[in-house]
Each structure stands twice: as C-alpha cells, then as structure tokens.
Known about the structure:
The chain is α+β, with helices and mostly antiparallel strands. It has a single domain (5-78), classed as CATH 2.40.50.140. The chain has one helix spanning 53-78, and strands at 5-15, 18-23, 28-32, 45-50. It has a 4-stranded antiparallel beta sheet with strand order 3-2-1-4, with no helix packed on it. The radius of gyration is 18 Å and the shape is elongated. 5% of the residues are buried.
Amino acid sequence: xxxxxxxxxxxxxxxxxxxxxxxxxxxxxxxxxxxxxxxxxxxxxxxxxxxxxxxxxxxxxxxxxxxxxxxxxxxxxxx
Length: 79
C-alpha cells in the first residue's frame, strides 16, 4: 500500500452489539462489536484503516510472500 488512509480514535463505549469509536477530531463512528478485535475494551486506542480493493490485494500478496520466504528460510536451515 503506498498511501495509508487512516483515522485514530478511542473506543468510547459499547451499546448493545455496537462499539462507539470517537475519532481524534471528535466524530463518532458506530462499529459492529462482531467486527472488533477480540478483547477490545473501552478506552482502548484504535486505528481505522481504509483500503481500496487493489490495496487489499497488494497487501495480501506482500504478506503471502513474507510468509513463504519465512517457510523456505526455515526449510533451508533444517536441511
């Protein structure tokens, strides 16, 4: 990803099945609790990142290459 588009915020509270995230500029974002990281708590800092479909594909390819290189490096050291 060449340009990172993100907003910083804090989990302000939970309301039923929604989390209310307050961004640094004071805006409130309502986010499904089911889409929050496990163990997320009130007062915890978060970063919301926006990806385009192409950015997502590129990031997944980079991660796959990193993982594959680690696997191959481990096999070389075992062999």
